[in-house]
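Subject — a protein and its fold

Tokens — whole-number codes for backbone shape
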Amino acid sequence: VQLQASGGGLVQAGGSLRLSCAVSGRTVSNYAMAWFRQAPGMEREFLVVLSRDGGRTYYEDSVKDRFTISRDNAKNTVYLQMTSLKPEDTAIYFCAASLSGAWYTRTYYYKESSYYYWGQGTEVTVSS
């Protein structure tokens, strides 16, 4: 299984970007899919996870009103729509896939160890 993240770039504060995570090798609906990010000098942080059935999500509080996760089963791709971007959103964004069959509590999905596959990251820079 491979995850390919794309869609990053340079955007002005207040702007929008849509990141994509293309899954190859298995059907995306086999996994709970998440987005993380890592800012310079910081640890990687959880942003959002989408359940295998596509019906449930957990969002980090700092992004829940601005970011939206979605999935296109036909394209085997997960998206992260980001709006009202701020300079503090500048980071490398990673997608990840969890093999968990059940839907667990939020704390489970915050942990990097809960994910088996990771994409290579796509860089987002938000200018002020």
Q: What stands out?
A: The helical segments are 106-110. The longest helix spans residues 106-110. The chain has a mean pLDDT of 96.
